[in-house]
């Protein structure tokens, strides 16, 4: 019924060891969970890096796409329809290849509300009507997404 001093010391020692074991288990579980979260984050970052690995190349190729658009506008003035159609189909094929790599045009048109997340204002022009204030008056250069990330903002003229 009565514990001896040795038994009390023994029980106290067992309790201390159990407490220490429980603390070490909690540390282990925290470290284990942190490690699992770390692995998930690294895997996600790795997929993102792979997904956007061609970003600089695609960005550089956008100037070629712009040149196609400009040349088609000029060629329409001077040449016959079959030549224009041939160049148009080459441009379309080129854009489809870029599109398959994750490139997507930002849809910006005259009258859209100016959005700093998608647009870069080249200049502001006094708006003739009040409803044109803060709106896109003209699109100078198309903007593009790469896998939902803006890689080039649409360059626009905005009404003030």
Automatic annotation (TrEMBL):
Q: Does the keyword Chaperone apply?
A: yes
Q: Which is one Pfam family of this protein?
A: GrpE
Key word Chaperone present in the record? yes
Q: What is its main location?
A: cytoplasm
One GO CC annotation, please? cytoplasm
Quaternary form?
A: Homodimer.
What role is this protein assigned?
A: Participates actively in the response to hyperosmotic and heat shock by preventing the aggregation of stress-denatured proteins, in association with DnaK and GrpE. It is the nucleotide exchange factor for DnaK and may function as a thermosensor. Unfolded proteins bind initially to DnaJ; upon interaction with the DnaJ-bound protein, DnaK hydrolyzes its bound ATP, resulting in the formation of a stable complex. GrpE releases ADP from DnaK; ATP binding to DnaK triggers the release of the substrate protein, thus completing the reaction cycle.
Annotated protein name in UniProt: Protein GrpE
